[in-house]
């Protein structure tokens, strides 16, 4: 695995998301229910940034049409999105948040 430091854990508020870039890829980094999770920062329905959406109860809601995605699996929870978004492994080391976008 090829983990890259993206931010400090203390920079992430609970139930929030932020946009980061890892090896040139846009990533939505979210903190929800005590976990830090990462997924592709693009809604599979409308191609807008998920990091601009609302986070709650382990999901992120796309701000444009309201599709919700499970932060752990990337799967859509309801319409209009029908395709999952890619998720990435996250590791927290002290105050460092690291994400791996390599296959």
Give a structural overview.
This protein has strands at residues 4-8, 16-22, 25-32, 35-40, 54-56, 59-61, 68-70, 87-88, 90-93, 96-99. It has 103 residues and is mainly beta. The chain has one domain: Rieske Iron-sulfur Protein (3-layer Sandwich). The strands form three sheets. A four-stranded antiparallel β-sheet has the order 2-3-4-8, with no helix packed on it. It has a three-stranded antiparallel β-sheet with strand order 1-10-9, with no helix packed on it.
Q: What is the CATH superfamily classification?
A: Rieske [2Fe-2S] iron-sulphur domain
Report the order of strands and helices: EEEEEEEEEE
Overall number of domains: 1
Low-confidence stretches: none
Q: Biggest sheet, strands in spatial order? A: 2-3-4-8
CATH-scheme architecture: 3-layer Sandwich
| Mass-distribution shape | globular
Distance between the termini: 8 Å
CATH class call: Mainly Beta
The overall strand count is: 10
- What's the quaternary structure here? single chain
Integer-rounded radius of gyration: 12 Å
Mean pLDDT: 96
Helix content: under 10%
Largest sheet: 4 strands, antiparallel
CATH topology: Rieske Iron-sulfur Protein
The number of distinct helices, counting runs of at least 4 residues, comes to: 0
Instruction: Give the amount of beta strand, in percent.
Output: 35-45%
User: Structural class per helix/strand content?
Assistant: mainly beta
């Amino acid at each position: 695995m090829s983990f890259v430091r993206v931010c400090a854990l203390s920079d992430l508020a609970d139930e929030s998301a932020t946009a980061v870039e890892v090896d040139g890829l846009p990533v939505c980094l979210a903190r929800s229910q005590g976990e830090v999770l990462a997924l592709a920062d693009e809604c599979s329905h409308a191609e807008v940034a998920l990091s601009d959406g609302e986070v709650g109860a382990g999901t992120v809601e796309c701000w444009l049409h309201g599709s919700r995605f499970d932060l752990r699996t990337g799967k859509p929870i309801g319409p209009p999105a029908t395709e999952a978004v890619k998720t990435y492994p996250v590791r927290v080391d002290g105050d460092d948040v690291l994400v791996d976008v390599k296959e």
